[in-house]
Specification:
By secondary structure, the protein is of the alpha/beta class. It contains seven helices and seven strands; from the N terminus they run βαβαβαβαβαβααβ. A seven-stranded parallel β-sheet has the order 3-2-1-4-5-6-7, with helices on both faces. The chain starts with 11 loop residues before the first strand and ends in a 6-residue tail after the last strand.
Length: about 240
């Protein structure tokens, strides 16, 4: 579904995990900033609901249901977007696993690495032609506080997010000559459905609201061409 109007000056954001949590908040924030949004996620009904929210607020969106771990689906998306300018690629999709290393199966490890590390790599590579068409392109990776603070029972998730931090830094250096900024924002804990499932009953006063994370993503993406910032964490002052 697409509701984009002909507006050559309107900027475009592609957001993974756009059906809920940080991705949804960012999609609404982008729409409020008059950006056209490309909504990526596995569940079409969730994406449709976000697109309807955007339309109700006078914004434009296009829904692209797909599994970001599916190489063929990512390749098809890149083909469908051939010739389109993407100004912001926000990689918000992710998955979580709480388990000791003894209880983490190889299949679970592979899944966590595919979703949180391999898929962002693959998607960034596939959409570089679109980002290169922009006069001020950004790739924003949503990381996790575990990249700065080691905690038990999340070894697979931590390995994936620390790998994503390394990817962000390496990609930032590689794309610096083209003035494409790459930044990872590592929030935590955040008030998302994934956090609620992982920590039932958690005090929400210690959580970072998704709209706050969205504001930071938009602030980084709005920096002037040729200006960037280092990866950083974002957390509540009440969290310990």
């Amino acid at each position: 579904m697409s509701t984009k109007t002909e507006n050559p000056t309107q900027r475009t954001a592609l957001i993974t995990g756009a059906g809920s949590g940080i991705g949804r908040a960012l999609a609404l924030g982008c729409a409020a900033a008059d950006m056209h949004t490309l909504l990526i996620g596995k569940t079409a009904s969730k994406l449709d609901a976000v697109a309807a929210e955007i339309a109700a607020r006078g914004g434009t969106a296009a829904v692209h249901p797909l599994d970001i771990t599916d190489d063929a689906a990512v390749a098809a998306l890149a083909t469908a977007l051939t010739g389109m300018t993407i100004d912001l690629l926000a990689q918000c999709a992710g998955d979580w696993l709480i388990a000791s290393i003894d209880d983490t199966s190889s299949a679970q490890l592979d899944h966590i690495l595919r979703v949180n590390l391999r898929a962002p790599y693959r998607l960034a590579r596939a959409l570089l032609p679109n980002l290169r068409r922009s006069d001020n392109a950004s790739i924003i990776m949503i990381g996790s506080i575990v990249t700065a603070l080691s905690v038990p029972m999340v070894s697979a998730y931590t390995a994936a997010k620390v790998g994503l931090k390394g990817l962000s830094g390496a990609l930032a250096a590689e794309l610096q000559p083209e003035q494409i900024r790459v930044v990872m924002i590592s929030p935590g804990p955040a008030d998302t459905p994934m956090r609620a499932a992982a920590s039932p009953g958690i005090d929400k006063s210690v959580l970072v609201p998704p709209p706050t994370i969205a504001q930071m993503v938009l602030a980084v993406a709005a920096l002037p061409r040729g200006i960037s910032t280092s990866d950083f964490t974002l957390h509540s002052l009440l969290w310990q």
